[in-house]
Design brief:
- The complex is a heterodimer of chains A (78) and B (553).
- Chain A has 2 helices and no strands.
- Chain A has 78 residues and is mainly α.
- By secondary structure, chain B is an all-alpha fold.
- Chain B contains 16 helices and no strands.
- In chain B, helix 3 runs parallel beside helix 13.
- The longest helix of chain B has 37 residues.
- Chain B is globular and about 80 Å long.
- The chains are: A mainly alpha (78), B mainly alpha (553).
- The interface between A and B is medium-sized, with 24 and 34 residues.
């Protein structure tokens, strides 16, 4: 496989089939993909964080109700 | 006009491939931008139609055009469609998608297939919203407060909420794409301080989209769960808190308004620099003020809840922070004004829209400060004062920015010139119509007319101002129709545009009009600062031009 990090070679001569057309270097593509995944995970934190926080607050405030409700839990649905 | 031998049209992103599937399965950011353009224009008509019905009802004090429930649906659908399906996508999804890669010297966005997915998510959300409208609509207000939305509305609320949920992910993915693109795909030499301020504005917008929209998504999940499963999250009878809904909702929806205005500010910055033939005054201040707006915008949400029963001490803090968030916006206005000073002003249509933005955004922003003051807010909250305030910013600001940007970059997008005379007339009509529609609403609100009322027959003295407002809305409608007509006309009959008809700064102007699919044949190497209008306007033949970009012709 030709060395795709060599500077100055034409893209056609050492075209790595995994290199997408809009990226100049495979390292750039990897960096973009990994940064993209971390940023997406940050959005997931915002998404679930609020949900978990609300659940935890209510569970603490109404622990008796949660305990009572868990006695009527349906084992099939969980 | 005698023509020479007809030249074969250069290959560009429009004529490279034909056929419906080449558009529906494209990953070219420019084609996706046009897909968005058509879609958001469609939803603009829908939202505008509801606005027309609202204004028709308000012509007379009595509630005689529609019933009360129907009127509730009208203003709800107007708000939901306009905000989620027109304003939030508009500039980022159309102009941002088209220009961000070109302005930084890239061939496409970082994730082109995710870009296409964003559009499909928008369409799926849009179809769901359309179905909701056709099966009776929602009457909760676009803010869908609990407990009305969760317990008491008889309308098809779950479908509308899910439509917004899906469209929200379109917004998140677009933001993700822009952030990664701006970080990782800038051409060599394109340092952060050489980026056009349009890019800085979209970067800040994308941060807000990424961090804020998931909270709306989770709020919608909770509201839907409450409505369907009666979990009691927001229901006091089951131990819940209705104010929790408002906190969660406004935590997103306040930053959402910055999603709507920041891109327009970026557009206006580009236009003012070009038509004053001057570098923007205070580049770093304008760049960092975009980031500051994004950060501060997350800290002020409770100014929508001053009268909702929250703690007065918390209200004090939010009021102070709301004053603070106005400072970066004011910094921008001052910098734009300083750019105009001693500039060589050209009054082309994009500049007319930018002037309109300057004045109307300033009025809208200042009235926001009125509302941030607790005493005044108690008097004018839930009146037409608030309605006028946000329409000055969203319509007088964001929509004018969008129209100005569409005119400015139209030659690049379509390869044709729009008719300048008609464009200037349309800009003037929009400005006059806008002020006639919304200035009376400040007066109405201050004098006490509540919002979301279809019948004001106990306050018949308000009819005159309401009639003025409706008349203005008609004029505004004409002003919006004109560009739609002449843009379409120009695609067939317009004069072909040169690569840089405005002699503007920016890498996007170094490509042909319209650009080829991959924008640049060879990666540009940037060795000049942004807004180099002094070089563009007075090139010295002896010195080597610093800004030669190897672009295939």
């Amino acid at each position: 496989m030709p060395d795709s990090t060599a500077v100055g070679l034409q893209n056609e001569e050492q075209h790595n089939p995994a290199l997408l057309h809009h990226f100049a270097e495979p390292q750039q593509q990897r960096d973009a993909a990994s940064l993209g995944m971390w940023v997406f995970l940050a959005t997931e934190v915002m998404f679930f964080g609020g949900l978990f926080c609300a659940y935890l607050v209510y569970r603490r405030l109404y622990f008796g109700d949660f305990a009572a409700a868990s006695k009527t839990i349906s084992m099939g649905y969980g | 006009m005698p023509t020479a031998m007809p030249q074969p049209e250069r290959e560009n992103y429009l004529n490279k491939e034909y056929g419906v599937w080449s558009w529906l399965l494209t990953t070219d950011h420019k084609r996706i931008a046009l897909l968005y353009l058509v879609s958001i224009t469609f939803f603009f008509f829908i939202g505008g139609f509801f606005a027309l019905l609202i204004r028709l009802e308000l012509l007379t004090p009595a509630g005689d055009l529609v019933q009360a429930d129907t009127y509730n649906k009208l203003f709800t659908m107007h708000g939901m469609v306009m905000i989620f399906f027109f304003l939030i996508p508009s500039i980022p999804a159309v102009l941002g998608n088209f220009l961000v890669p070109m302005m930084i010297g890239a061939k496409d966005l970082a994730f082109p297939r995710i870009n296409l997915l964003s559009w499909y998510l928008y369409i799926i959300g849009g179809v769901m919203m359309l179905h909701c409208i056709l099966t009776g609509g929602v009457d909760t207000g676009w803010t869908f407060y609990a407990p009305f939305a969760t317990n008491f509305t008889n309308s098809n609320f779950i479908e509308a909420a899910l439509a917004i949920f899906v469209a929200g992910f379109s917004s998140i993915l677009t933001g993700l794409n822009f952030v990664i693109t701006i970080h990782r795909m800038r051409a060599p030499g394109m340092t952060w301080s050489r980026l056009p301020l349009f890019i800085w504005a979209h970067y800040a917008t994308s941060i807000i989209q990424l961090l804020g929209t998931p909270v709306l998504a989770v709020t919608i999940v909770m509201v839907a769960a409450e409505r369907v499963l009666h979990l009691g999250i927001f229901d006091p009878k089951l131990g819940g808190d209705p104010l929790l809904f408002q906190h969660l909702f406004w935590f997103y929806s306040h930053p959402a308004v910055y999603i709507m205005i920041l891109p327009a500010m970026g557009v206006v910055t580009e236009i003012i620099a070009c038509f004053s033939r001057k570098r923007i005054f205070g580049y770093s201040f304008v760049a960092f003020s975009s980031i500051a707006i994004a950060v501060f915008g997350f800290l002020v949400w409770a100014h929508h809840m001053f009268v909702a029963g929250m703690s007065v001490y918390a209200a004090l803090v939010f009021s102070l922070l709301s004053y603070a968030v106005a400072v970066p916006s004011a910094i921008k206005v001052f910098n734009w004004t300083a750019t105009l000073y001693k500039g060589s002003i050209h009054y082309d249509a994009p500049m007319l829209y930018a002037f309109g933005f300057l004045g109307l955004f300033t009025i809208g922003g200042l009235t926001g400060l009125f509302l941030a003051a607790l005493g005044i807010d108690v008097h004018v909250t839930d009146t037409y004062f608030v309605v006028a305030h946000f329409h000055y910013i969203m319509v007088g600001g964001a929509v004018m920015g969008y129209l100005g940007g569409m005119h400015f970059w139209w030659p690049k997008i379509s390869g044709k010139l729009y008719p300048e005379g008609w464009a200037r007339l349309a800009a003037l009509i929009v400005f006059i119509g806008f002020n006639l529609t919304f200035f009376p609403q400040f007066l109405l609100g201050y004098m006490g007319m509540p919002r979301r009322y279809y019948d004001y027959s106990h306050m018949p003295e308000f009819q005159v101002l309401n009639v003025l407002s409706t008349a203005g809305a008609t004029v505004l409608g004409v002003g919006y129709l004109l560009p739609m007509i002449y843009f379409l006309w120009s695609m067939r009959y317009g004069k072909p545009a040169s690569d840089n008809p405005w002699n503007a700064a920016g890498l996007e102007w170094k490509t042909p009009s319209p650009p080829p699919t991959f924008n640049f044949e060879e990666e540009p190497v940037v060795t000049w600062e942004a807004y180099n209008y002094d070089e563009l306007d007075a090139p010295r033949d002896d010195a080597p031009r610093k800004e030669e970009v190897p672009v295939a012709r």
